[in-house]
Amino acid sequence: MLMQWFRFYHGTVSDPKIRLIAAKAEVPIHQVIAVWVAMLEKASSNDPRGTIKGWDDEVESVALEIEISAIERIRKQMTGRLLDEVTVLSWKRRQPKREDGSAERARAWREKKKSTVNSPELNRTHLNLDREDREERKKEDSPPNPPEESGGDSQSEMDWEDFKAAYPRRSGGQPWKPAKANFIREVTKHKVDAQTIIAGAKRYAEEMARTDKVGTEYVAQARTWLNQERWNDGYSDAPGDNLFGQDDEPNDETIQLMRIRNRAMADAGFTAAEMKAQQAWKMTNQEFGELLAKRRAEKDSGDR
């Protein structure tokens, strides 16, 4: 029996989207990863591939030993970020049509050569066929290139120029073409307000200037900044101060936790000043969950 495969890409475990889903679903990150892997396996085995049709939260709860309510919350938060209803986003781009090894390719090549013998193109030698087959296999084995994002409308183009002007200068590489594709995608596909992104870029530029990092390699590449949705990050309001407090020296894990929780708080309606005052990075998961639940309840009552 032919072994079936699907591709699992580097960086998935540390993907900010995975961490954001965990924070919003109020579950540990390893549970989100477990559910995601189970969904990819389901999508790979389905026909056609790329959908999770037939997914059953109760069955997966038993298989993964995760509470069914947690799986339901995770699946809900994945929708729009990793899933489109039952379709895995970017499946066709990230997963090849097959992962079948050399046996099926060799069989296909023999069939191709056999049909060529009786074709009018008798001037194509075996050497040509071998070269063409190698080129075809090389294309199949190479990860597909992501489709280029469309340029967007004229307003998106103007917003992009404003973002580019606001973003802090850095040394080293600054690939603007993929950054522009990310910006257009966020604005046109994910419906993020362009002015929100531009305002975040201006705050980031101010933070880099305050810490004397403008023009250095410590300024993130714009495409990375956009991929990580860092326009949601909170920055200092006063010189010599930061979101951690004046005397704190945060490590990388603390910074990452702060970013994840700041995004969740921004979605719940907290302002940058409120984020700073709450110091949510010091809270336990339970305390942070209660804080978000309280703000959502206040927001819902205010909308009525």
Characterization of this structure:
With 304 residues, the protein is mainly alpha-helical. The chain folds into four domains: 16-94, no CATH class; 101-141, no CATH class; 148-232, no CATH class; 254-304. The chain contains 14 helices and two strands; from the N terminus they run H-H-H-H-E-E-H-H-H-H-H-H-H-H-H-H.
Give the gist of this structure.
The protein is mainly α and 304 residues long. It is built from 14 helices and two strands; from the N terminus they run H-H-H-H-E-E-H-H-H-H-H-H-H-H-H-H.
The biggest sheet amounts to: 2 strands, antiparallel
Distance between the termini: 59 Å
Number of helices: 14
Overall pLDDT score? 78
**Low-confidence parts:** 122-126, 145-150, 237-249
Number of E-state strands = 2
Helices and strands, in order, run as HHHHEEHHHHHHHHHH
Q: Specify the helix fraction band.
A: 55-70%
Overall body shape? globular
Residues in β-strands, percent: under 5%
Structural class: mainly alpha
How is the topology of this model organized?
Layout: H1 16-25, H2 29-45, H3 57-64, H4 68-78, E1 83-84, E2 87-88, H5 91-94, H6 101-117, H7 126-141, H8 154-166, H9 176-189, H10 194-210, H11 222-227, H12 252-268, H13 272-278, H14 285-303
Antiparallel strand pairs: 1-2
Helix pairs in contact: 1-2, 1-4, 1-12, 8-9, 8-10, 12-14
